[in-house]
Amino acid sequence: MSSRRSVRQLLVAVILGVLVGGGLMAVTPAGAEVAQAAATSWKKIWKKELKPLADKRYYTKKKSDATYATKTESAAAQAAANAATDGKLGGYYKKSETDAKYVAKPVVQRGMFGTIYQADAANAWGSALIQFPTPLAAAPTVRYIQSGDPLPSGCSGSAAAPGAAPGYLCIFERYTLNRSFVSVYGSTGFLPSDGLGAFIGYRSIAAGSVSVAGTWALGVSDPLGTSSREAVGRNAPASGPGAGH
Question: N- or C-end of the chain: fewer Cβ atoms within 10 A?
C-alpha cells in the first residue's frame, strides 16, 4: 500500500511540474517581449518626434542670452535714449516755465439770474443772487445794464450773448415787471460785489408781483486757486419769492 501511495505522489509532482513549467515558458517570453517593445517604442517616439519639436520651438539658454538683452543692458539703453531725447527738446519750454513766463489767458464766466416775489405795497424789497463758479482773488467792477441802455466800458455783447473784460461783472437785464430801484452789493452788504458773487436788490413800483430776469458775464484774469485757462460757466440760482424783503 505504501509503495502505491508513493508512486501516486510522484506522478502528481511530475504532472504539476510539467504544468507549471509549461505555463512559465508560455508567459515569461511574452511579458519580456512586451516590455522590450514598449521601451523601444518610447525611445523612438522621443528621438524621432518629441525631441526635434522641442529643439525647434524653444530657445536654449545659450540662444536666449545671445538674442535678448539683459536687464542691465536694457536700462542702460533706455537711459541713453532719454538723454538723447532731453537734448533734442532742450529748445522747448516746459509747462512750469511757460506758466511763470506768460500771463494766463483770460476767460469769461457766464450765467443767468432772476427773481420773482409778491410785493405788499410800493418799495417792497426783493433780491436775486449771482454766484461765481470760480472764486476770485479780488472783487470785480460791476456794471448793471438795463434793457435799451448803451454798453458801458468793460462790457460787450448783449443779454443773449453777454461778454465782459477781465475784472468786470456785466449784468444784463432782459425782463422786468413792476420793479423800480436797482442796487448791487456783495455778501457783506457794503461793496458792490466781492470775490464770491453779488446780490441784486430791487424795489417794487406798487403792490403786486415783481419779476426780474437776465444774464451776466464775468471777465476773469485772477481766479483764486483755479487755473484761469479753463473756461467754466454755471447758471446761478435765483432767489426765492420775497427774498430780501
Answer: N
Scanning the structure block, which residue is given the C-alpha cell 533706455? 78
Q: Which residues have C-beta within 8 Å of that of residue 205, sequence separation ≥ 6?
A: 122, 178, 179, 180
Distance CA 100, CA 20 (A): 107
Q: Is 148 exposed, middle or buried (0-12, 13-18, 19+ CB in 10 A)?
A: exposed
**Amino acid occupying residue 172:** F
Residue 92 within a domain: yes
- Using the structure block, give the residue that is written with the C-alpha cell 438795463: 146
Contact between residue 136 and residue 147 where contact means Cβ atoms under 8 Å apart: no
User: For residue 103, is pLDDT > 50?
Assistant: yes
Does 154 reside within a domain?
yes
Domain boundaries, position 40: 2-96
CA pair distance 218, 108, nearest whole angstrom = 5
Q: What are phi and psi for residue 172, nearest 5 degrees?
A: -105, 120
Task: Give the pLDDT of residue 14.
Answer: 47
83 and 145 belong to one structural domain:
no
Higher pLDDT, 40 or 141: 141
Indicate if the pLDDT at residue 229 is higher than 50: no
233 found inside a domain: no
Please say whether the dihedral angle defined by the alpha carbons of residues 12, 17, 19 and 20, taken in this order, is positive or negative: positive
Q: Is there a domain that residue 26 lies in?
A: yes
